[in-house]
Specification:
Oligomer: single chain
Number of strands: 16
Largest sheet: 8 strands, mixed
Number of helices: 10
Distance between the termini: 16 Å
Bound molecules: zinc ion
Helix content: 25-40%
Order of helices and strands: HHEEEHEHEEEEEHEEEHEEHEHEHH
Low-confidence stretches: none
């Protein structure tokens, strides 16, 4: 089932269920839960999935769950939603405003969760009708904001045997009905680096008897970003920027330690993997001439999300089928981080942006991670159309590429 048939079936499904899913989203919005504490949310998702005959499986150590739809030996496509909220105060005046002080769904994860749940209900119908040429795995992932939830899913085997993985994220800068697509990097890596120098201190009259630590630290602060700009491909969008430098306590005393702390942002996956070793090597070479010792503490955040070209094309085909070609929009790369990137370290896939700004609204565009954030709820239906069509498109393509007869296989499944 593709093209017009699929669009008609999705429209009929949404006409029957859209109201219910808007209510589901509002319920999550009123009861937001922080990373790794999404117990009620997980329970509500599981109940609804069991209601359509599915068998959701909780993640072994935490909140969140994984649920397979369809069986048989065909391909497996995973769809991921993040389910956690943020430690922010909900500043909106709406009936579904957060009932939990200091916690709010200000990143739209309530929408992602609802879209995936509704997609699961639709695909379960398809599976019962023998129209699913493989298996769809729903990943309801905890703790995107921490981050860490994606790694939990990967470690629990959540993407073992998965051929492709897809996700969407609300985008308040796109109009409802639009889907933002981009091949290559779509979000950035953000890590933290701390450099600690130590060596003999002493009187500023006799720097030659010390490692002149403040001078050496100054060299690290200026030379390290400069050297990186020559050692990393300029197309990698790599930047090290210091946010804190600290050493010494008196104008005439050379201290015996000091620290510089900053962030590394990067758009390229290879450069991100190479960064810790390269930074350690460069720090060593800068301080070698001063007799200081250097310690580098490199803390990983998330990798850049790098959308794979074939997966983006599948999203585009699905979007065109389910919503029409005018729904496809270009989207710029964001310097924000997104832990969906951890899945793409293992499996090809892509993240799409879901427009949530009402075309009828004259209000200024809202932003994510603000207490005022809200969405045009018609975006939920758009998301369901996109995710359902993407899962089917990817399954059909993977099945064809594997040389099977998806129609017959689906009928036998
Ligand atoms: Zn967020
Ligand atoms: Zn988010």
């Amino acid at each position: 089932m593709q093209g017009r048939d699929l669009r008609e079936q999705l429209n009929a499904f949404l006409a029957r269920h859209e109201r219910e899913f808007v209510e589901f989203r509002r319920d999550l919005h009123m009861h937001p839960e922080l990373a790794f504490a999404e117990h009620r949310t997980t329970q509500r998702i599981a109940e609804r999935l069991r209601g359509v005959g599915l068998a959701p499986e909780p993640l072994p150590h935490t909140t969140g769950l994984v649920c397979d739809i369809g069986a048989g030996g065909g391909p497996t496509v995973a769809l991921r939603a993040d389910i956690d909220a943020l430690p922010l105060t909900d500043e909106k005046d709406v009936p579904y405003r957060s009932a939990v002080p200091g916690v709010a769904h200000s990143c739209g994860h309530d929408v992602h969760t609802t879209v995936l749940l509704a997609t699961g209900v639709f695909l379960a119908q398809q599976a019962r009708a023998g129209a699913l040429p493989g298996r769809v795995r729903l990943l309801f992932q905890p703790a995107e904001e921490l981050p860490g939830g994606a790694r939990e899913v990967v470690e629990a085997g959540g993407i073992d045997g998965v051929d492709r993985v897809f996700a969407l994220h609300c985008d308040p800068r796109l109009l409802t009905g639009q889907v933002g697509l981009r091949t290559g990097p779509i979000t950035a890596a953000c890590d933290q680096v701390l450099v600690r120098l130590s060596g003999p201190g002493g009187h500023t009259a006799r720097p030659h008897l010390t490692s002149d630590l403040v001078y050496a630290l100054g060299k690290v602060v200026t030379e390290l970003p400069a050297a990186l700009s020559r050692r990393v491909d300029p197309r990698a969008g790599f930047s090290l920027v210091w946010g804190r430098v600290s050493a010494g306590s008196a104008p005439n005393a050379i201290p015996d330690d000091g620290v510089a702390e900053g962030t590394v942002r990067c758009l390229d996956d290879d450069a991100w993997h190479a960064a810790p070793d390269l930074i350690r090597e460069l720090v060593e070479s800068v301080v070698a001439g001063y007799g200081a010792r250097a310690e580098v503490d490199y803390r990983r955040g998330v990798p850049p999300t790098v959308n794979e070209a074939t997966s983006v094309r599948m999203l585009q085909d699905a979007c065109t089928q389910a919503l029409g070609p005018e729904a496809v929009a270009d989207t710029p790369q964001s310097l924000g981080g997104e832990d969906f990137a951890w899945y793409l370290e293992h499996v090809p896939g892509a993240l799409a942006r879901l427009g949530t700004h009402s075309p009828q609204s004259s209000a200024p565009m809202l932003d994510l991670h603000r207490g005022t954030f809200d969405v045009d709820e018609r975006a939920i239906g758009v998301g369901v159309q996109l995710m359902s069509a993407t899962a089917l498109t990817a399954l059909w393509e993977c099945a064809r590429a594997a040389g099977g007869d998806p129609v017959q296989d689906a009928a036998l499944a």
